[in-house]
Every structure is written in C-alpha cells, then in structure tokens.
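seq:
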Amino acid sequence: MFRLLSLALALLLTLPATVSAQSLQDILQTHQDEVLKPGRRSVGVVLDDLVASGLPQALPFLESWRDREIVQRDSDGLFFRMVEDGDTVTLEDLDTGETLTAREDDVTESRPNGGVRRAIGDALVQFQLSDPDIANRQAAVEAIERSMDASQLAPLAASIEGEPDATLKETKTRLAGMLGALFADTTEARVAAIEALSGDLSVDV
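struct:
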C-alpha cells in the first residue's frame, strides 16, 4: 500500500511539469491541417489554443503566420519560419530559433487568406493586451486608439477584467466604451455605451 501511495504521489508531482513542457510545435502538430490550410471559420480553434498556451514564442509565430512566412517541411510535417534565398531557404525552429537550410521544393507554404489574417491580427492584439510587460500593453492600447477598428472591441473588452494596473484598466474601459458606442452589435448596446461615456470629459470622446 505504501508503495502504491508513493507512486501516486510521484505521478502527481511530475504531472504539472509534463503539462508545462508543451512546446509551440506540439500545439501546431495537433492542428496540422488547419495551420497549413487555415479557413476563416475554423482557425479560431488554433488561435484559442495558442492564446491559452501563454507561450512567449506564440506571439512571433502569429506575426510570421499572418505575414505568410510559415512553412511545413514535407518529410516530417514540422512547421518552421522560412527565409528565402534563391532556390535555398533557411528554416528557423519556432521554439528554439535554431536554423537549418533546405530546398524550396522540400517545404509547403501556409498562405492564410485575408479573413484568416485579420483573425490572426485580432489574436495578436489579445496577446499584446495581456502581455506581462505593461509597456507592451500600453502600446497595444495606443494602437487601438489610433485605428479604432471594430475587430478590436472583443479582445480589448476581454482584457479589462485581468488588467492589474488601475490607470491602464481605466483607459481600456473608456476605450472599450468608445468602440462599443461605434461598433456594438445592437442599437441598445451602442446606446448603453454612449450613456456610460456621457460623464467622460476626455477630448477623445
């Protein structure tokens, strides 16, 4: 009995380390088809898993995926960031950054369409709005203030509750109200957002 209890305890202690050891490549391999040939209606599953992973390398991957720099190596199905140089390409490991060379016909490019690229852009904003570095979160908010795009309302609103800085949280809340007044799905929601902003004397409103 003691040996069984000891074994169970050992398994419990090692489980978190096993879970946390998941790499970016592991996630991409789970969604191989969708990463290689993403569709607007189904790409959300991949993006949700990447955002939930909290992996720092997920952010540069999303940027490269949006910019059509991601390829799959035909021999083993692994994904890389690609830099072209004539008939030879440099492949960069998405987790370690290590590089190797290959021929262009050894890889298949992932080419997300415009709708998928916009969805990836939304996920990038969500990453930046929840970045541990407050400077990056502030930069993301400032970028939203400049663009005032409807697609940024949902990720901005989702980031408010977990914002640890009181001043930035207030800025996010005000900005979400402004976007809601412009782009909320219903007239009632837009009116409610306008009423919430009625006492704000900011020159931005």
